[in-house]
Design goal:
single chain; 219 residues; mainly alpha; 10 helices
Length: 219
């Protein structure tokens, strides 16, 4: 992450980026370093947050100062930020020179004597702790290891652990076997071929000459 005119941005360009951010800060993935144009010039943004703007931007000084403070507050001091994020850096972009430059920019801004409204009261302490860890090779290595261990991982069986969905309805289903009506032995009922058919027809199964409940369909 670099800062300055080498990025091809004029003060007017940076002013437009800041005002655009202040209108919809929620649409940017700050923890992924977006918008890059503001992270690349975070040192300049810190100066503007302290009220030190170029003369050509004096008519917008109030708007731009507020927008710069908002960006610093959201980008650097969101609760849960890592030491890298507090200084607006990443592990891949950190160099000793950039670390010193970024520290100086932010410690001036967050010093209690500045009294910048909108920044957390312990902002200076957060900046100092970030420098202590990231400027020491051994401490930084231990910190990087902690970040790797704390990084959430996707569960390998996420699909299998999902709550099973109810099967689609297929219309009325037959009752279970134990709730089915008793079988008819596969034989259609026919009238008895002898004179007692009328009496049996009226009496039903109770008059069957076979063992009750075990008629074999002899009719």
């Amino acid at each position: 992450m670099r800062d300055g005119a080498t990025l091809g941005q004029t003060p007017a360009d940076l002013a437009r980026e800041l005002l655009s951010f202040s209108q919809a800060p929620g649409k940017y993935a700050l923890r992924l370093g977006e918008p890059k144009s503001l992270f690349n010039r975070l040192d300049t943004v810190a100066q503007w947050a302290a009220g030190r703007l170029p003369a050509e931007l004096t008519p917008q000084v109030s708007q731009l100062t507020a927008a710069a403070v908002l960006f610093i507050q959201r980008a650097c001091f969101t609760p849960g930020n890592t030491h890298y994020q507090i200084l607006g850096l990443t592990a891949s972009t950190l160099t000793p020179e950039l670390l010193r430059t970024r520290y100086r920019s932010l410690i001036r801004l967050t010093h209690p004597d500045m009294g910048i409204a909108g920044l957390p009261p312990d902002a200076a302490g957060m900046v100092n702790r970030a420098l202590d860890v990231l400027s020491d090779d051994a401490a930084r290595q231990r910190y990087d290891d902690q970040l790797k261990k704390a990084k959430p991982r996707a569960h390998p069986h996420r699909q299998a652990l999902r709550t099973p969905q109810a099967p689609p309805s297929r219309g009325p289903q037959p009752p279970p076997a134990h709730m089915q009506p008793p079988p008819t032995h596969g034989v259609a009922w026919l009238p008895p071929p002898f004179p007692a058919r009328a009496a049996w027809a009226n009496a039903g199964w109770a008059s069957c000459p076979n063992t009750p409940g075990k008629c074999t369909g002899h009719w």
